[in-house]
Design brief:
mainly alpha; 68% helix; 0% strand; transmembrane
């Protein structure tokens, strides 16, 4: 790679790190808010627990491990990460950061800098390389357009996605670990390294159990791959035997990965059961705060908290399966399953889980944002639109953390980046419109950009953006009625949920009807043929 080629990559990474470091200077979740503080304290407390207690007690309720004070409820790989960070704090920084009991609620500037640096380290070592590599590989393998402008625009939009930056480097979490591992797993499947992809996804799932949002597409794609990779000239029995053999190897690989990670808790059923109980807490309720999913909207009319949690868990499970199984079965049974269908299925399934599953957080929309980010080279307008509304849906949480200014700043930067992507489709000569300030037509194929459909899509995007601005102004400037204190948060959730339902239907349509022969691909092919003919 020469200097000219490397410069844009370095610039994008440098910009991503600079903005993440700048956001790290702001406040975090639960800062100076006793008695439990927030997610920042949860992550710190897990370091305290893992470095001071034996492994067998990490998930067990004991005097020194109170589940009511941020009990460790993430899978083993996340616990190991907490342990390593805790050791780093104890040996090379300040033992008071992880002192049992005494470190609770610590909020010194030195500790804040230490914690922020642990997130930045994961960004540098895992998330940024993974998201860049994944987006670049998807573009190289699947996108017909090869223009440099579109390439760097999609990479920049992926790296500078405001939602992930604001949650990990602002609010404070380590979503960058599981999302980075999942992105690498997608790339491994794209490059036909199925066992490596399976191991990487198992690692992601063992870092955060919410990676179950992505599990079904991986399962169906890998299952199909086991039985479709045989030589077509062989007999049915030979293909079946080869498929079963590949499935057995895949199963052993997955089981071995889980066994290695879960080994300290496999000495007894009680220990393993306690771990499972911690990471799947049914008692917490169907959703938290004002999350932008279906159940939060239903709760306005029917108070779901009046129903037993076990009943709601079963209802959520049934509705989630109904929402995601069609996509998974299509991926499994279609005549020619491709990685393009897999990407759409990831988006559909994650969105189905977000909208209908049990105990959903606002931050869980990041799990949907990952596959949509990987669709940037293929669906620039739809992907940018979704990522914009995904960030907006988390605004009430971000405002509570004191991150309103960073939210506005990063949102404006991401919108400004859209102007640079106006050449996103090769040969695009979309006409300018007086109101198209962001040059959104440049994100559409020429056949769509210059007709009524393009005008409608561009208008709807700006209408969506205007609605966000109005809700934002109302949230910040208009006091809510005394009897409806959460009115503005609920309005933002309802507005975002409406968008998510529409995107759920759209991505389903793209998987079932348009993934193989998209308008953009057809138009790009026609243009290419015309150029060759000339």
């Amino acid at each position: 790679m020469d200097i000219k080629t490397a410069l844009p990559w370095v610039t994008i990474v440098a910009a991503g790190l600079f903005l993440r470091a700048a956001i790290s200077l702001h406040s975090y979740s639960g800062q100076n808010q006793p008695p439990k503080y927030g997610d920042y304290e949860a992550q710190r407390h897990w370091q305290e627990v893992t470095v001071n207690l034996p492994v067998s007690d990490w998930y067990r309720n004991t005097t020194d491990n109170d589940p009511l004070y941020w009990g460790l409820d993430y899978p083993p790989l996340s616990a190991y990460h907490s342990y390593l960070v805790g050791l780093w704090a104890r040996r090379w920084h300040n033992e008071s950061y992880v002192a049992l009991y005494e470190s609770r609620g610590i909020s010194t500037n030195q500790h804040k800098q230490f914690m922020r640096n642990t997130v930045l380290l994961l960004d540098v070592l895992l998330y940024l390389p993974a998201i860049l590599y994944a987006t670049y590989t998807v573009r190289k393998r699947l996108a017909n357009d090869r223009s440099e402008v579109a390439e760097w625009a999609s990479l920049a939009l992926a790296v500078l996605f405001p939602g992930q930056i604001l949650i990990d480097n602002g609010h404070f979490q380590y979503n960058n670990a599981s999302l980075g591992l999942c992105a690498l797993a997608v790339v491994a499947l794209l490059e036909r390294r199925t066992l490596a992809g399976a191991v990487l996804f198992c690692l992601a799932l063992n870092y955060k159990q919410m990676e179950l949002y992505h599990a079904l597409p991986f399962f169906f794609y890998l299952l199909r791959d086991c039985f479709t990779g045989s030589d077509k000239s062989s007999t049915v029995l030979e293909r079946l035997t080869a498929g079963v053999s590949r499935l057995a190897v895949l199963g052993v690989t997955v089981l071995a990965t889980f066994l290695v990670l879960w080994l300290p808790w496999l000495s007894s059923l009680e220990a393993a059961g306690q771990l499972v109980h911690r990471i799947f807490p049914v008692a917490r309720g169907v959703f938290e705060d004002k999350v932008s999913n279906v159940w939060c909207m239903v709760n306005v009319l029917v108070k779901l908290r009046n129903f037993p949690n076990t009943t709601m868990a079963l209802v959520c499970l049934l509705c989630t399966l109904l929402a995601v199984l069609p996509s998974g079965l299509h991926l499994l049974l279609q005549k020619a399953s491709t990685i393009r269908s897999f990407l759409y299925s990831l988006a559909v399934t994650a969105l189905g889980f977000f909208l209908f599953s049990f105990h959903v957080h606002e931050k869980s929309i990041l799990l949907v944002a990952l596959p949509v980010t990987l669709l940037l080279p293929l669906e620039p307008l739809a992907a940018c639109w979704f990522l914009q509304i995904a960030t907006f849906s988390m605004f009430p949480l971000l405002h509570k953390d004191g991150l309103t200014v960073p939210f506005v700043g990063l949102s404006l930067i991401s919108l400004a980046l859209l102007r640079t992507a106006r050449g996103a489709q090769s040969g695009n000569k979309a006409r300018d419109s007086s109101y198209d300030l962001l040059h959104l037509r440049g994100l559409l194929p020429e056949s769509v950009a210059n007709n009524v459909t393009g005008s409608v899509l561009v208008t709807l995007f700006y209408a969506s953006l205007l609605g966000q601005v109005l809700l934002l102004v109302a949230f910040l400037c208009l006091p809510a009625p005394a009897h409806l204190p959460f009115l503005h948060s609920l309005a933002i959730s309802a507005y975002s949920c409406g968008h998510f339902v529409l995107f759920y239907m759209y991505f389903n349509y793209r998987q079932f009807c348009g993934a193989e022969g998209t308008v953009a691909n057809k138009q790009s092919t026609k243009i290419s043929h015309k150029k060759k003919a000339k």
